[in-house]
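My current task is to audit a protein record that another person submitted. Alongside the sequence sits a line of tokens, each denoting a local backbone shape. Please read both lines and tell me whether the tokens look consistent with the sequence. Do not assume that whoever made the record got everything right. Thanks in advance; the entry in question is below.
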Amino acid sequence: MRVAVENVAGRFLFAEVEEGEEQATVGRLKIAIAGAEEEAAQAQRMILVTAAGRVMAEDQTALAQYGVSDGSVVYLYFSPDGSTSWHRSYEDYLTIPS
């Protein structure tokens, strides 16, 4: 599966992840983006958001559960401290009625 990844600077890169429920996970996508398994520390700071605005917070979750498939676009951000607790506030912000 090939996923397009756009970073905050607006640059695109493409990440390849093995097809299948067990192989195509958020964690594996982060590793593919980092470029190598040795970059695990960088991968832990990655925050991925789907085009629909869903934060992909759980590394073990299959990409398909977030609606990500071959050719999908996800957005890449980095947490300054590696914390994932901020995503709850982000999701709350997205669901606040205007």
Q: What stands out?
A: The chain has three helices and four strands. Residues 4 and 17 are 11 Å apart (CA to CA). Strands lie at 2-7, 12-16, 46-50, 73-78.
